[in-house]
Design a protein that fits this description.
By secondary structure, the protein is an alpha/beta fold. The chain has 11 helices and 16 strands. It has an 8-stranded parallel beta barrel, surrounded by 4 helices. The longest helix has 23 residues. It binds phosphoenolpyruvate (PEP) and manganese (II) ion. The site of phosphoenolpyruvate has 10 residues, from loops.
C-alpha cells in the first residue's frame, strides 16, 4: 500500500541492505560502528515532516511552472564550516541570488541550501597517492579526514555522530539567524559591484539592484511589508544521500502532517498555462485510500541520489523509493533515456507532482546531445509535467589546470580541478533554450558556491585566470563559484528569463 506516494511493499528503512551497493563503506571497528548507529537512532529528527511537506508543496509549484528552485552550497561541506561567518555568508548570498532570480523570472523562488549535512562524497577512485604515499581518498567529513595520512583516511564510525551534531548546530544557527532577521529585507543588503570590470556590465547589474531595492523600498513605504513577509524567508536544507547507514538512522515513521497533500490532490492548473495538458494525468481506479503515515528521512528536507549511485536495482534507489521526502536524482550523459522512466516508476509510482527533481549535469559540450532525449522520454510517460527539471551546470564542466604553488624548496607545479564560468553559463543557457524549444520548463539551478572570496573557478566579471587559482583555493572536493561569480550568474540567468 502506498504512503503519500511511497510504496512500502517489500520496503523498510533497511531493505537497501540486501541490494548491491556502490560507494559503500566498510568499517573495521564494528563495535564503534554499532554504537554510533544506536546513538543516531535515539537522537531527535533534524527536520520535521511538516517542514518536509512544506518544501514538497513548494516543489509542486516549481513542477507546475509557477516557481523557481535555487539550490546551492559547497561540494564537500566540512565540519569546520560550521561557524557563524561562513553560515551567514552563504545564507546572504543565496538570499541575494534569489532576489535577482525573482526579479528575472517574476516567480517565487524556493531556496534550498547544500548545507547542514553535505558531508559525504562519492569518489571516482577509492585510493590516491599523495607525495608518494598511497592512501584512501577523502570521502567527506562524515567518513574520514582530509588529512593526508593513511591512518586519518581510515573510515571512522564516530564521524557519523559528529556529522549529526555539526548538522544540528548548523541547522540551529540557520533557524535562529533567520528568525532573528538575518534575511530581513528591511535591512539594506550589501550589493557591492566594484569588482565588475566591464562598465556596461556593471551598469546593467546596478540597474537590476536599483529595481530590486526600489521595489523593497516601495513595499515598505506603502506598508505592504507589514504582513510579516519581509522579515524572514524559508531556507531548506539538502545533501546527497550517499551514506545510507546515516540516512536510515534518521528515517522515522510519522503520521503525515496536516499540510501534506494527499497523493490524489486535484491539480490546480491555471487555464492559460501550458501545463493545462496535465489534466489528462492517469488516475488510479478505484482510488487508493489516503495513507496516513510514511517514512520521513529527517536528516534534511531534501536529499538526492548522485550520478554514480542511481542504478535501478541497487541500494540507493531502493532506500530512496521508500521515503516521503522530495528527492533529487542526478542525471548525466551515462543515463540512457530508456532508464529514466523506469527509474521514475520506482521512485514515484503514483506520479506525485514535485516529488522528483531531475538534476541534469552533462557539461556544456554534451547537453545538446542528451537533454532532449531525456525530456522526450519523460514527456512520453505518465511522469510528464510531474518532475522538476533542474540544471546543474557544474559537474559536467570540470577540467584540470596546472598551477605553480610554493613549497619548502621554492615552487612546484601541481594539477588542480577548476571550472570555467563561461562553460557553466553556456550549459545553463543551453538548458533553458532546450527546455523552451520542447515546451518544457527549466525549474531550477543547482550550483556549487560559497560565500567566501575563493579562487576556484576561472572567469566571471573579475576575470580570474588559471594563474589566480592558487591565491585562495580552499575546496576539498570540487571547485565552487565564489560569492561574486555566483551573484553574477544569478544576474545573467535573470537576464535569460527576461529575454
Ligand atoms: C556533487 O553534487 O557534488 C556530485 C558528486 O555530483 P554528481 O553526482 O552529479 O557527480
Ligand atoms: Mn561536487
Amino acid at each position: 500500500m502506498a504512503t503519500n506516494g511511497t510504496p512500502t511493499v517489500g520496503w523498510s528503512p533497511s531493505s537497501w541492505k540486501s541490494k548491491p551497493i556502490v560507494q559503500g563503506v566498510t568499517y573495521d571497528d564494528q563495535a564503534s560502528f554499532k554504537k554510533a548507529l544506536s546513538k543516531l537512532n535515539t537522537l531527535p529528527p533534524l527536520v520535521t515532516p511538516r517542514e518536509i511537506a512544506k518544501l514538497k508543496n513548494e516543489l509542486r509549484e516549481v513542477a507546475l511552472g509557477n516557481a523557481f528552485l535555487l539550490q546551492g552550497g559547497d561540494c564537500a561541506e566540512l565540519f569546520d564550516y560550521c561557524n557563524q561567518d561562513m553560515i551567514e555568508a552563504k545564507v546572504k548570498l543565496l538570499l541575494q541570488m534569489s532576489l535577482v532570480l525573482l526579479y528575472g523570472g517574476k516567480k517565487k523562488v524556493v531556496r534550498v541550501a547544500r548545507m547542514a549535512g553535505q558531508y559525504a562524497k562519492p569518489r571516482s577512485s577509492p585510493m590516491e597517492t599523495i607525495d608518494g604515499v598511497s592512501m584512501a581518498s577523502f570521502r567527506g567529513d562524515i567518513l574520514n579526514s582530509y588529512e593526508a595520512d593513511p591512518v586519518a583516511r581510515v573510515p571512522d564510525p564516530n564521524r557519523l555522530v559528529d556529522a549529526y551534531f555539526h548538522s544540528a548546530a548548523t541547522q540551529n544557527y540557520l533557524r535562529a539567524a533567520l528568525s532573528s532577521g538575518l534575511a530581513d529585507l528591511h535591512a539594506p543588503l550589501d550589493w557591492s559591484l566594484g569588482h565588475v570590470r566591464d562598465p556596461s556590465v556593471r551598469d546593467n547589474y546596478q540597474r537590476i539592484v536599483e529595481r530590486i531595492t526600489d521595489t523593497l523600498d516601495m513595499m515598505r513605504t506603502i506598508g505592504l511589508d507589514t504582513g510579516g513577509g519581509l522579515e524572514t524567508v524559508d531556507l531548506f536544507t539538502s545533501h546527497e544521500g550517499l551514506l545510507l547507514e546515516y540516512e536510515q538512522s534518521l528515517t522515522r515513521l510519522f503520521k503525515h502532517p496536516s499540510n501534506a497533500l494527499p497523493v490524489d490532490t486535484p491539480l490546480s492548473i491555471p487555464s492559460n498555462s501550458s501545463k493545462a495538458r496535465k489534466a489528462s494525468l492517469p488516475t488510479q481506479f478505484p482510488p487508493p485510500l489516503p495513507p496516513t503515515e510514511g517514512y520521513y528521512d529527517t536528516s534534511a528536507h531534501f536529499i538526492w541520489i548522485g550520478d554514480r549511485t542511481r542504478q535501478l536495482t541497487h541500494a540507493h534507489v531502493d532506500f530512496f523509493r521508500g521515503i516521503a521526502n522530495p528527492i533529487g536524482v542526478k542525471v548525466g550523459p551515462s543515463m540512457p533515456p530508456s532508464d529514466l522512466v523506469p527509474l521514475l516508476n520506482i521512485l514515484n509510482p503514483t506520479h506525485e507532482i514535485g516529488k522528483i527533481v531531475l538534476i541534469t549535469r552533462y557539461g556544456q559540450e554534451k547537453i545538446a546531445m542528451h537533454l532532449p532525449g531525456h525530456i522526450r522520454a519523460v514527456q512520453q510517460s505518465p511522469h510528464r509535467d510531474t518532475v522538476v527539471w533542474q540544471c546543474d551546470p557544474m559537474h559536467g564542466n570540470g577540467r584540470n589546470a596546472t598551477v605553480t604553488v610554493p613549497n619548502s624548496s621554492g615552487t612546484s607545479t601541481t594539477t588542480i580541478k577548476t571550472r570555467r564560468f563561461s562553460d557553466i553559463l553556456s550549459e545553463l543557457r543551453q538548458a533553458l533554450q532546450i527546455h523552451r524549444s520542447m515546451s518544457s520548463y527549466l525549474g531550477g539551478v543547482h550550483l556549487e558556491l560559497t560565500g567566501e572570496a575563493v579562487t576556484e573557478c576561472v572567469g566571471g566579471a573579475e576575470q580570474l585566470t588559471e594563474e589566480d587559482l592558487s591565491l585562495n583555493y580552499t575546496t576539498f572536493c570540487d571547485p565552487r563559484l565564489n560569492e561574486k561569480q555566483a551573484l553574477e550568474l544569478a544576474f545573467l540567468v535573470a537576464g535569460f528569463y527576461r529575454e
